[in-house]
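Obj.: predict assembly geometry.
Materials: sequence records (below).
Method: joint structure prediction, all chains together.
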Amino acid sequence: MERKDYLRNPVKHIKINSPLTVDQLMQQFKNSGSLGAGRLSAACDIYEKMLRDKECTVFLALSGAVVPAGMRTLIVDLIRKKLVDVIVTTGACMVHDAIEAVGGHHYRANWSVNDGELYKYHLFRIYDILVPEEDYVKLDFKLAEIYDSIAREYEGKSLASNEFSMEIGKRLTDEDSILRAAYEENVPIFIPAVRDSEFGFIHWLHAAQEKPKPVLLVDAFKDVPTICGICARSPKNGMIVIGGGVPRNTIQSSALASKKGLDYAIVVTLDRPETGGLSGSTLEETVSWGKMKGEGDRVMVIGEALMVFPFIVASVTERLGKEFKRAPFLQFQNQQTEG
Amino acid sequence: MERKDYLRNPVKHIKINSPLTVDQLMQQFKNSGSLGAGRLSAACDIYEKMLRDKECTVFLALSGAVVPAGMRTLIVDLIRKKLVDVIVTTGACMVHDAIEAVGGHHYRANWSVNDGELYKYHLFRIYDILVPEEDYVKLDFKLAEIYDSIAREYEGKSLASNEFSMEIGKRLTDEDSILRAAYEENVPIFIPAVRDSEFGFIHWLHAAQEKPKPVLLVDAFKDVPTICGICARSPKNGMIVIGGGVPRNTIQSSALASKKGLDYAIVVTLDRPETGGLSGSTLEETVSWGKMKGEGDRVMVIGEALMVFPFIVASVTERLGKEFKRAPFLQFQNQQTEG
Amino acid sequence: MERKDYLRNPVKHIKINSPLTVDQLMQQFKNSGSLGAGRLSAACDIYEKMLRDKECTVFLALSGAVVPAGMRTLIVDLIRKKLVDVIVTTGACMVHDAIEAVGGHHYRANWSVNDGELYKYHLFRIYDILVPEEDYVKLDFKLAEIYDSIAREYEGKSLASNEFSMEIGKRLTDEDSILRAAYEENVPIFIPAVRDSEFGFIHWLHAAQEKPKPVLLVDAFKDVPTICGICARSPKNGMIVIGGGVPRNTIQSSALASKKGLDYAIVVTLDRPETGGLSGSTLEETVSWGKMKGEGDRVMVIGEALMVFPFIVASVTERLGKEFKRAPFLQFQNQQTEG
Amino acid sequence: MERKDYLRNPVKHIKINSPLTVDQLMQQFKNSGSLGAGRLSAACDIYEKMLRDKECTVFLALSGAVVPAGMRTLIVDLIRKKLVDVIVTTGACMVHDAIEAVGGHHYRANWSVNDGELYKYHLFRIYDILVPEEDYVKLDFKLAEIYDSIAREYEGKSLASNEFSMEIGKRLTDEDSILRAAYEENVPIFIPAVRDSEFGFIHWLHAAQEKPKPVLLVDAFKDVPTICGICARSPKNGMIVIGGGVPRNTIQSSALASKKGLDYAIVVTLDRPETGGLSGSTLEETVSWGKMKGEGDRVMVIGEALMVFPFIVASVTERLGKEFKRAPFLQFQNQQTEG
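Observations (raw structure tokens):
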């Protein structure tokens, strides 16, 4: 590169003439184009490209306190508007969703509370959010029923994690639930570590009951060919990561195992690369593996995902406009099983 | 606190009906009210309160790559609209401003470039931003002239850091300059570590010139009573910190030394508290010192300040509306010296 | 608390009279007792207490690049000396171990390399470490054989994740392997997200082969009662976390589900609490859930676990001395299945 | 680079045969050579090289809670053994040192205390450390006397920040004080932001006293040619940074302004590069400026400096052995002024 090539893009300064829409501000960020603002606007551009690319399947990785933080409706809306095609998440995220689906709530609190007092009150803390134990108990009863029901329907068969989440979604009635919306809209939800959550402990209760009855079976490996098949059949694949952990790793590894490599990637995280852990690893590193194509569009936004992601969604949906309609390239068939 | 007191505020979920203005989204964040989104909306509420509180002096601490990141105009607008009353910053920040004031630029680049090549090209890197050496050289010549001019005017006298910045601002003509705007609008700019920047190295050149002439003198301690006096005379004091370091410490210590304690505080940073360093220290800790009043409104937003602060400004100015006028409680007199 | 109670423990300054053994330096850290040094020495004290408490079962959570970073032998030695009783880990960690067990290697590199070039060379990068693709291929072949062998032995039965790791360990011959050592020493290794790793993708190949043969089945939920049972039967439970993620969550949740609560906990991580994610959550927060007893000994060390943990092990084993013998309170029976 | 060149250095696994000296463990880290352990051992190698390089001047940047954390004696020993040649630090660091020099103390506490209660008790908190207000008051009285004494001696003259610290050190009698030791051993201590600390507020009291008397004058810019001159006259320059901020920036900028560029650099920090701030910026970035030579030995250790630095010192002093004697290449003359 010659010297002059480095000097083509002067930083333009952000100008705030309120009121600005979220995307108007994001366009200002694009002009400045550097540091956090530049990365955030690049994330919006990449998400927009994914959605306008008719051949791209959009994978959303969810981890952390997505539902407690107040992003449940936002995710449901993405599902219903076909702005995500596949979700990969943790057991905990879907447990949080299910708690609200059975009438429970998360409550705003303060991070500097007395945890000993909370323990006596049976209030569970997630940083500055509380969940009362009774909401977990309510979930336990409902899920135990649901497990019985699924087990009867699938007697003698094992489910994949995406079938598990679909069957739960089918049996929840709350239209504001991520699991329910995904079921209705045929968006598969993979939960590769489903066991590491209340889903696992309820299974223990469910399976331990004395009178003989069918037991729900989830096959740890059964979802592997399904998610890899999606990557393989989709001409292009894009990933948005809220947080990190197993959901990010599963998507990246599926892109590798299917010999496709991601075409688009957005990661929003506060994790750091220096530990060698997957959650904070750079998207450059993923190129060496073939998890991401070298020429793929990618950006890592350093920030609390639960604060940053709504700005991305607001900016991109504003760009798309009310008339925008999107159909996933691949059609899934959650509802088929009802027929 | 009784159990039921913990359960008064259920998290309400964010709903994005695009297009949303920045403040409409911020109101959604307020409803969710937890984690990053909750903290960010709290920061907007506190800044709004500061501005509507007629007795409050608003201190803005600037550190890091504020100008290279594209926030120069944003800061200038805050100054001209009287939405900040006092600025405390680093030498580097004002050097970046002055570089653009003399016709230099910052350029968008990539963080994963070859620094050896940049060195050969005389391009200086600030993460993903470049400054060409010739823009520094241009500044050096101009500042050397300015130093001579100030030295002649103040022969035999020492300046405080805020007088130094005022005198620079008086001699710059760029209306888009932070230093110039602050001069015109009577907003004092304190630079407690002014020596730790190009300002210091230019001084070396200036003072080393052979032919006898007056030398610019800056008294390291002279700004102390000035900034403490502002705190003391202001019925209330509020602080907004972009980054950390000396600017944050100076404001907090001035609030302590003047026996006032801050009434409002917003800190936006990625620094962590566990090291014991000032930049990442919690605002609770400041209460123990008396730097902050125990009942003062305060919040720490964990994020890249240069990405987060524009959202705060856009949200708050939208709330205030076009008609809002604010006059600082204290009147400063930068311009007096011209008369 | 009265004022004087806060002033009982003046910080004593660290004195380095080299050569110091690791524990001699750690005792200096104990005297200073604050910030990172204080936390690190507290971690050593707590691990020592766990090991000397004859009723305590020691759970080790491993995530991230433990083996690539060079801690394989260290973990093996902990297993063989009975200084850990139960391991909970990621699929990736055990894949890394298995790669070396079949003759593969990890290589030291630099984090600022050209990932496009690495991709062409089929070299996979983990921050500043490389693994050549051929070592993965070697593993794939060996594991496919092992899967066939396990499937034949367990035809018609599903394995729990700890049985899966035990059966792999039984079939590896490398005495320096974590999986092998754990098998020989009857240390159960739980891999709750086993599917999210090369283990999952090899399973896909294994299961997809054309000619009919038994297929290895892993039941996602089957390890839940096993690990909860260990917590329940153990009078006391202690946890050491390297990193975070699923391994940390599984141990904490098992302590909760078994209604025991941890008595001791050490977490070494760079993750932050403010996102609401589990990996960075404080140990105070775990008290609210009952995952940790309010009076339990606990400390969180902010650091790269792979740099910090060897200091803890060196310090604690030095304290214990060569003569120290420890037997786990609970006896497990990995080897039984051979009989 | 050819493929085989990437595969020359397999990671060797760390083996802990307790008791190990700190350096024996560090040699293990060198064999593993990657991630945090690799970086830490590289830091030790680089510090050792600096000390054995007879042409190298060693600059130590100190920021944050160095003294409260218990590293006062460690720094004093480095000074007395000639293992650092120049210190650049914050006002706060030297205030902490001076507090202990006049009989005050820092006390170990807990980070989750009630700051409102501490405020009532006049106990100031630094994360998990407390300083009682009376120790500050004791310092205020002593420093006011010292300022008077210096002002009388230097009537009509301005001091540079390094002269200021030398004159304080000359007037303290505590042999365990950093300021005193540096004075005795002719190690200059630069405090570029001296005003941003209790030193500044005491100056306010000192200067405001009614009866006419000489006032201590510190010239903000006077230390610039001194520190640049040290860089210029020293054939090689090395930097060790504990934390970041002004001390790191001053050393790096001096290396640039003197047209030398650092030959060696070690930075220990938890700050991140992505914000564009100086404290977390990579050492690669410094190469683009010429602050660091492209071929210079450099490493950034991601960790709490106050936990990590003692390991570096213990390892390096162990390598050097008791017989090792080092004389600085440049001779300074703190004591001259006494003559």
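Conclusions so far: The CA atoms of residues 4 and 23 of chain D lie 31 Å apart.
To do: check interface contacts against the pulldown list.
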